[in-house]
Amino acid sequence: MTILAIEGLTVELGGRPIIRGVDLALESGNVHGLAGESGSGKTMTGLAVLGLLPHGARTGGTISLGGTDLLSLSPKEMNRRRGSEIGMVFQDQSTSLHPMLSAGRQLTDHMRHHLGLDRRRARERAVELLGKVRIPDPEGAFDRYPHQFSGGMRQRIAIAIALACEPRVLIADEPTTALDVTVQAGILRLLRDLCDDLGLAVLLVTHDLGVMSAVADVISVMRDGRLVETGPRARVMRDPADPYTRELLDALPDRSTP
Amino acid sequence: MSLLSVEDLVVDHRSPDRPPVRAVAGVGLTVEPGEVVGLVGESGCGKSTLARAICGITAPTSGSIDFEGRPVGPLGLRRRDPALTRIQMVFQDPFASLNPRRRVGRQIADGLRGDATPGELLERVGLDADMAGRYPHEFSGGQRQRIAIARAIAAQPSLLIGDEPISALDASAQAQVAGLMRALAVESGAGLLFISHDLSVVRLIADRIAVMYLGKIVETGPTAEVWDDPKHPYTRALLAAIPEPDGSGTLPAELPGDVPNPAAPPSGCRFHPRCPHVMDVCSVREPVPRDGVACWLYDSAEPAAE
């Protein structure tokens, strides 16, 4: 079932086109991978869904979530959906968490706002979420601060925060790029499990085709603000239709040095 | 004689009111002229501390560091021994390692040896000679790291150290910068110690790989050998965690647990709490490196069970 449909999305920044017509359909329970070089517009596509584009950005096309066009919403209506219906996980977990607020405070803030939970119920749910993202000793972790966790644990907390209000769509922008490979493997497994168990629709933005191949069901490849190819994982990775995708795959060390 | 030989190096980080943290706990490492050694390991395993000690930025607690046959002492207030300026380092963050208020040409000229000009050095790292008059903020991250490399090679080093020189860069610039460092080092016959947590890049440029875990080197060997036939369980876990871009949708294997606190390392082999092949002896006694691997699994001379 398609949850989020992006149709003909264009973004212009300072008169320069950044995204020139992107069509994506996110299905529930599916991980949709978005690949491409830096500067191709991957991150901007994610930010457009959340209404977090930089000031002065002009948009075109539609992004519809359950029948409403997100691009035409007022800031107030968008605020209601951001964080509750759409969650986001950013690349750099050390800057996406507030250093002076405890993990628990950051987890309950938006739950109390969006879901109207009282302090006690919000705490219960936060502890449950910390357990779900496999933080050891969730009760104790609630009162600790970001600097007391390792990078992998911080990214798990960031994922827990994004999931707190049971969003239908999760945008993960390079969620494992800053992490060690051993930690990355754990985060990828977690994303996959959450997607399967909760029926989340995940948009995974990454430049790492290995990561893409491990978790994505559908892969789109982006270049210069346009999608050059979209298709099932196995087909795109093994038999790319577009010459640019082939170039990307050929650039991988494993293929060029047999 | 090796270009650089580190023996039994121990580095402690001391802070008041806390027990000292042993970041490097007895490391032996050599780098030969013209050789590229890749040092890999998870974050927090002491890779950077080791690099800083070799440069003399951090004072070692015990052990020896010999560079071209003379000991490397810690940096002091006086001018550094000119022979030791043949060790040059490229740091992780090019936004912090270049002075924002000085033109890049002047910064390169600081340590200049021989009759090359800053412009020529910029050309060697793939930039234009007339960029020497610009300031660091006028460049992108990849370009800045190239400038930092130009500054390092200006002193005609015989040992170049890269401390995670590519992790702050965009993915597209990473392989280029890593390749550039290798080419410049090999071309001039210098040794390169390349530190990174990104195994796929290290594999491309290193002749030899050293795998570090919690302050110790657990395995060393020629790159192809380590990659194709990893011996130590930790090396195996690291390599198994790299996702394969084959389109099959297999999730990479997860290494359970976190890196233990270096202030209170586990007894015996430091990897034993996370090791899938843990034996009785592992928690009691520390394995001795044999043929480049420090693991009881490969120590047939010692009885496995005691």
Describe the structure.
The complex is a heterodimer of chains A (258) and B (306). Chain A has 258 residues and is an alpha/beta fold. Chain A has helices at 42-50, 75-81, 93-96, 103-114, 119-132, 138-142, 151-163, 181-198, 209-215, 233-238, 243-250, 253-256, and strands at residues 2-13, 16-27, 31-35, 57-65, 68-69, 86-89, 169-173, 201-205, 218-223, 226-232. Chain A has a six-stranded mixed sheet, with helices on both faces. Chain A has a four-stranded antiparallel sheet with strand order 2-1-4-5, with helices on one face. Chain B has a single domain, classed as 3-Layer(aba) Sandwich (Rossmann fold). Chain B is built from nine helices and ten strands. Chain B has helices spanning 47-55, 94-97, 104-109, 118-124, 141-153, 171-187, 199-205, 223-228, 233-240, and strands at residues 4-13, 21-31, 36-40, 62-67, 70-71, 87-90, 159-163, 191-195, 208-213, 216-222. In chain B, the strands form two sheets. A six-stranded mixed sheet of chain B has the order 6-7-8-3-9-10, sandwiched between helices. In chain B, helix 4 crosses helix 5 (141-153), helix 5 packs parallel to helix 6 (171-187) and helix 6 runs parallel beside helix 7. The mean pLDDT of chain B is 88. Chain A binds chain B through residues 37-38, 150-153, 177, 180-186, 188-189, 192, 207-215, 217, 233-238, 249, 252-254, and chain B through 42-44, 170-172, 197, 199-200, 203-204, 237-238, 241-255, 258-259.
Number of beta strands of chain B: 10
Largest beta-sheet details of chain A: 6 strands, mixed
Number of strands of chain A: 10
Mean pLDDT of chain A: 88
The main sheet of chain B comes to: 6 strands, mixed
Q: Categorize the overall geometry of chain B.
A: globular
Q: Which strand order do you get reading across the main beta sheet of chain B?
A: 6-7-8-3-9-10
Span between termini of chain A: 41 Å
- Beta-strand level of the residues of chain A, as a percent range? 25-35%
Overall 3D shape of chain A: globular
Our Rg estimate of chain B from Cα atoms comes to 20 Å
**Percentage of β-strand residues of chain B:** 15-25%
The Rg value of chain A, from CA coordinates, equals 18 Å
Poorly predicted runs of chain B: none
Q: Determine the fraction of residues in helical runs of chain A and give it as a percent range.
A: 40-55%
Helix content of chain B: 25-40%
